[in-house]
Amino acid sequence: MKLGDFDYNLPRNLVAQEPSYPRGSSRLLVLRRENGNMAHREFSELPHFLRKDDVVVLNNTKVIPARLKGRKKRTGGRGEILLLERKTESVWTCLLKPARRLKEGCEIYFPPAKLKAQVLGRDGENQHLIEFEPSEGLEEIMAQIGEIPLPPYIKREKGPTSQDVEAYQTVYAKHEGAVAAPTAGLHFTSSLLNEIKKRGIELVEITLHTGWASFRSLKGPQIEKNRIAREYFRITPSAALKINEARKKGGRVVAVGTSATRALETRARGSGEVSSGEGWTDLFIYPGYEFRVVDALITNFHMPRSSLLLLVAAFVGRQRLMAAYEEAVENHY
């Protein structure tokens, strides 16, 4: 299967550079999985497409201020770190910028904070290991000097703003650990969630710390030969129980986002039930994959050739997905 088959025309002016304001005011393109029929709605109308016994699964991860900008000790040149995964109390896997100039042994400082990071070496393709000193109180220092990482397709001249701290968190974010926002959930407001609950629809929270897998480009032309970065997830026993009970009643499992989808499918049994558990998943879903748990998917539009686009194509079929994207472009989504 060729990655080029999942390319499409994406006018630059249709890539939103700011989140919708007010939250929840986005448009909604409804695609019927069974027949490919489409309807144009508002996101606030979502409850009308849900049924009484459905269960809506939310990813309650919280984005951390994982982008740190500092200066090299020796030259004073700029050094930028994007944290990806914590290895020990003081050591992280990260992306460096400019990577070619931040060699092993290089030290980066972050004035006015009393924090130092030393590059320990490479950790796989494009990734590096860094060690912070001091490691105590790192979260508090990050909150002071760090920035919320924005998706790579957002290219603002002035960079992130103070509003991004709130705008790129879901209203139900709880567990810190994500370095990329689970963007499908950004459209939900507290009032919309309450309306869904009033209709007798169960809301269940699970956790998947969205990471590099969300924005890392696929390289090889053969889809099957690609891999995606692993991400930590957790599904509690109570969450698994509620999901399985909904399915037994004939309700649908409605996943909010590709991240929730990957976590659910990682813990799916052959019977269609979900088992509780936590760990790391590198499940790569692309056309040909048979979904065992997820019955409906709420997701944003995704970039051409991305792993996220492939997941949605696996869910609805390539032809229907490409037709929906063409419809969205024509209607200026």
UniProtKB/TrEMBL annotation:
Q: What keywords would UniProt list here?
A: Cytoplasm, Glycosyltransferase, Isomerase, Queuosine biosynthesis, S-adenosyl-L-methionine, Transferase
Q: Does the keyword Glycosyltransferase apply?
A: yes
Enumerate the InterPro entries for this protein.
QueA, QueA_dom1, QueA_dom2, QueA_sf
Organism phylogeny: Bacteria, Candidatus Aerophobota
Q: Which PANTHER family match?
A: S-ADENOSYLMETHIONINE:TRNA RIBOSYLTRANSFERASE-ISOMERASE
Enzyme class per UniProt? transferase
Gene Ontology annotations of biological process type = tRNA queuosine(34) biosynthetic process
The protein's Enzyme Commission number:
2.4.99.17
Q: Which domain of life is it from?
A: Bacteria
Instruction: Indicate what this protein is called per its UniProt record.
Output: tRNA preQ1(34) S-adenosylmethionine ribosyltransferase-isomerase QueA
GO MF, one term, reads: S-adenosylmethionine:tRNA ribosyltransferase-isomerase activity
Answer whether the UniProt record assigns the keyword Plastid to this protein.
no
